[in-house]
Design a protein that fits this description.
Blueprint: E1 6-11, H1 21-38, E2 42-45, H2 59-68, E3 74-77, E4 80-81, H3 87-100, E5 105-110, H4 115-120, H5 125-143, E6 148-151, E7 156-160, E8 174-178, H6 183-191, E9 194-197, H7 203-222, E10 232-240, H8 244-251, H9 255-265, H10 277-283, E11 288-290, H11 292-306, E12 311-315, H12 322-341, H13 345-356, H14 358-382
Parallel strand pairs: 1-2, 1-12, 2-3, 3-5, 4-5, 5-8, 8-9, 9-10, 10-11, 10-12
Antiparallel strand pairs: 6-7
Helix pairs in contact: 1-12, 2-3, 3-5, 6-7, 11-12
């Protein structure tokens, strides 16, 4: 690989309807601390306002708290639903976060996923993608330091400018959500943005990966630029354990509720009556439920489908309980990350080199030990002293 693969999480979040929401939020913050400790590089935080399970209304508020509890990991808004916000407010909030996190914030934007959110705000879903582009265009100009005067049917700006310049120059990285439709790819290519492929692990989203990337590349060429694969991020559902059987058992904690929640928003998963939800999800490639080797195989399939990309984001689904979820990320850090980073290549090469040269190296080590004994015995003999018999070194673990 020519592009180092980054690893992160995508935290919508999802929480069961019967659990304490205050404790669930605290656990989300603890998860960010945990994956930061494990070496994950990114965490993207969602925005939702209805439907029950996705309980985070403000990614910016969450990021401000999580950044104080972590050291290295970068945080992205995954995503701010721009049609729900005045663009000047969004620009100012992101710039403030950029300062508060000392450059550890990324700005992800989208049109808003839930029709129920738009309904409560009196917004028709048909207009959200157009409003996303309008707001995104303005926000980028504001973050570059421009004064903007502009009026649309949903916002007005008069000599608008941000109070602060960004901490990151020229401004934090900006990404746009891309699922199945080509709208995200068009915007990414037009405005030189990263892409968040939020449905890369689902059938329709996986099938659309290459198409939407090509849409982005074509739009970039039309605007005199080239897309940067290092800013392409793919989101996967994943839970791993030491064995496939254990992973499946863990996932039965929350898999069915998760799929029912998705279908309650918009029917998309046709699970046969009486089917085992975990088995069905695995068979239909909705998620990786297995071992670290299964995770590696799925990522290799993504590479085969998409080519190189910059980051894989594991969606935090709450399919497993808290202890099993933490263990899943720990196993991922132990075995999946080093597989793709090549962290153990030199160690493996060194082991193989020693194996190849074992006979010669062992002989040299034994000769050195023999010479050491001979020197000691000669010195003692010169003093008229006797020495104990040499030990049998055949099975010795050290000859120092």
């Amino acid at each position: 690989m020519t592009i180092p693969l980054r690893h992160g999480i995508f935290l919508a979040p999802f929480h069961s309807l019967n659990e304490n929401p205050t404790l669930a939020m605290e656990r989300d913050l603890q998860l960010c601390e945990w994956v930061d400790e494990l070496g994950f590089q990114e965490a993207w935080i969602g925005e939702h306002h209805s439907a029950g399970m996705e309980t985070n209304d403000s990614p910016e508020l969450f990021i401000a708290a999580a950044a104080e509890r972590t050291k290295h990991i970068k945080f992205g808004t995954g995503v701010v639903s721009l049609p729900y916000h005045h663009p000047l407010n969004v620009a100012n909030r992101i710039i403030q976060l950029d300062h508060m996190t000392r450059g550890r914030v990324m700005f992800g934007a989208g049109p808003g996923l839930l029709a129920s959110d738009a309904h409560m705000m009196g917004i028709e879903p048909e207009v959200t993608r157009g409003r996303l582009e309008e707001a995104l265009d303005v926000i980028l100009r504001l973050m570059r330091g421009e004064f903007v005067t502009e009026e649309t049917d949903w916002y007005t700006l008069r000599d608008a400018h941000t109070h602060l310049r960004p901490y990151t120059q020229p401004h934090p990285e900006v990404c746009v959500a891309s699922a199945v439709t080509p709208s995200g790819g068009r915007l990414a290519g037009k405005y030189d943005l990263g892409m968040l492929c939020v449905a890369a692990g689902e059938r329709a989203g996986f099938d659309a990966l290459a198409t939407n990337w090509q849409v982005a590349c074509d739009a970039a060429v039309e605007n005199g630029r080239e897309m940067d694969r290092s800013r392409l991020r793919c989101v996967l559902n994943m839970h791993i354990a030491e064995t496939r059987e254990q992973a499946r058992e863990n996932a039965r904690f929350g898999c069915e509720e998760f799929i029912r929640y998705y279908n309650n928003n918009q029917p998309r998963f046709d699970v046969p009556e009486g089917a085992d939800y975990v088995d069905w999800a695995i068979e239909n490639n909705i998620a990786v439920v297995g071992t670290p080797d299964d995770a590696i195989a799925r990522l290799e399939a993504l590479y085969e489908k998409q080519g190189e990309f910059g980051a894989i984001l594991i969606q935090v689904t709450q399919w497993a309980d808290w202890a099993a979820t933490k263990r899943s990320f720990e196993l991922y850090s132990q075995y999946v990350i080093p597989h793709f980073s090549g962290a153990n290549e030199n160690r493996t090469t060194s082991y193989q080199w020693v194996t190849k040269n074992q006979e010669e190296l062992a002989s040299k080590r034994a000769n050195a030990a023999t010479q050491s004994f001979a020197k000691h015995e000669a010195e003692q003999a010169a003093k008229g002293k006797t020495v104990a018999a040499r030990p049998d070194l055949t099975n010795s673990t050290t000859l120092s």
